[in-house]
Amino acid sequence: MTVAVETGLWQLDTTASTVGIRHKTMWGLVTVKGTFGAIGGSGEVRPDGSAVGTLTFEVASLDTKNAKRDTHLRSADFFDADHHPEITFVARSAELRDGDQVHVVGQLTVRGVSRPLSLTARLTDGNATGLTLETEFTVDRDQFGMGWNQLGMIRGRTTVTAGLRFVRTTG
């Protein structure tokens, strides 16, 4: 699928977008899943077709369907929401390649620690007024100061999935 994306400013449609995480715990026997309920973002498609933008996720909005676990995830052992209430991803460059593949280079900031992050997203829908990107990638939580691992129960990388719907706001 080849899609022409219009230049201009784009806003994240928070009602049509989702960001979730998946991580194996209990020595890899249980997969914990959660979603961020409060997300925001905007971007700009430049005349050359490249794009830049920022996404934010409110840490306190992470819901794993277990209140006790969610409280622990917000604590200093993990996300430290009191001191770092948001996770941000700044896309410094996004380029459409090979039809529907979007190569994204940016910076992810979690707990006040910023790390470079490159990923590939798929443009699943796009027209003059809206576009949808889907991606899945993994991050090493140790790189962001989240090394808490009681009895070795939590190992490996965390998978992030996102379906992001953007609507065009200006030309």
If you had to describe this structure to a student in words, what would you say it looks like?
It holds the Pfam family YceI. By secondary structure, the protein is mainly β. It has one helix and eleven strands. It has one helix at 67-74; strands at residues 8-12, 18-25, 30-36, 39-45, 51-58, 62-63, 86-97, 101-110, 113-126, 130-139, 158-170. Strands 1-4-5-7-8-9-10-11 form an eight-stranded antiparallel β-barrel. A hairpin with a 3-residue loop joins strand 9 and strand 10 (130-139). It is elongated. The relative contact order is 0.23.
Provide a brief overview of the structure.
By secondary structure, the chain is mostly beta strands. It contains 1 helix and 11 strands, in the order ββββββαβββββ.
Count of extended strands: 11
Please estimate the helix content.
Answer: under 10%
Shape: elongated
Stretches with pLDDT under 50, minimum 5 residues: none
| DSSP strand content | over 45%
Largest sheet strand order: 1-4-5-7-8-9-10-11
> What is the count of DSSP helices, taking H or I runs of 4+ residues?
1
The helix-strand sequence is EEEEEEHEEEEE
Largest sheet: 8 strands, antiparallel, barrel
Mean pLDDT, to the nearest integer, reads 87
> Structural class, please?
mainly beta
State the separation between the terminal residues, measured CA to CA.
Answer: 23 Å
